Amino acid sequence: MSETFLRKVNRMAKMNNQPCDSVNGGSESFQFYCYLSWRSRHTSAMTKSLPPKSLVLYADDDLDDLEMMRDILRPYNNFIELVSFTNGFALWSYVSTWDDNHSKPCLIILDVNMPLMDGKQTLRKIRASEITKDIPVVLFTTSTMPHEAEFAKAHQAGFITKPISTQHVSMIAEEILAHCGDELKQRIKGNLGY
């Protein structure tokens, strides 16, 4: 396992408040471990919050982009619980365990280019599952290629280009949240005075 990979794993673990003294196995094993650890740690905390936060799932292999998304959604921390994954496989491993009674996220955000399972493959799996097919999804990418936007549209997903500068970050937050359900948008609007 490379030093670079270990640094990224430790950085990701710190972002999600996960202890990570050592890593055994390949990247898939670690990511699955983080998923199990997150689930057990956050489930009780989320049920205690009043009103409950809406869950947003985000998969991206670039740790700087994961941090950027946390910054983008930080003003909405009272309303949103952001859970990050380093690839589509880890996100799909999490959502594929759900049944009809599981509380669904208000939004799934996917980077297009990721290892193990890219955003397009993950989106196809989400749309093919009865449990997840109606969850709003956004492809969040650096790509400006028309065929990428057409793919998103064909799979009933939004398409947002990652901001190039910090000036675009607040506009991106509004664009991302526009894909969430009306209930969350009303809560945000009512509490932030929009």
Summarize this structure as a short list of keywords or feature phrases.
alpha/beta, 8 helices, 194 residues
Describe the overall structure.
- The protein is an alpha/beta fold.
- It is built from eight helices and five strands, in the order H-H-E-H-E-H-E-H-E-H-E-H-H.
- It has helices spanning 3-15, 27-48, 63-73, 88-95, 119-128, 146-154, 169-177, 182-192, and strands at 54-59, 80-85, 107-110, 137-141, 158-161.
- It has a five-stranded parallel β-sheet with strand order 2-1-3-4-5, with helices on both faces.
- Helix 2 (27-48) crosses helix 4 (88-95).
- The chain is globular.
Count the beta strands.
5
The Rg value, from CA coordinates, equals 16 Å
Strand content of the residues, in percent? 5-15%
Taking pLDDT < 50 over at least 5 consecutive residues as the criterion, the unreliable ranges are 17-50
How far apart the termini lie comes to 49 Å
**Major sheet, described briefly?**
5 strands, parallel
Strand order of the largest sheet: 2-1-3-4-5
Share of helical residues? 40-55%
Shape: globular
Q: Regarding quaternary structure, how should these chains be classified?
A: single chain
Query: What average pLDDT do the residues reach?
Result: 75
Total helical segments: 8
Q: H/E series, N to C?
A: HHEHEHEHEHEHH
Structure class: alpha/beta
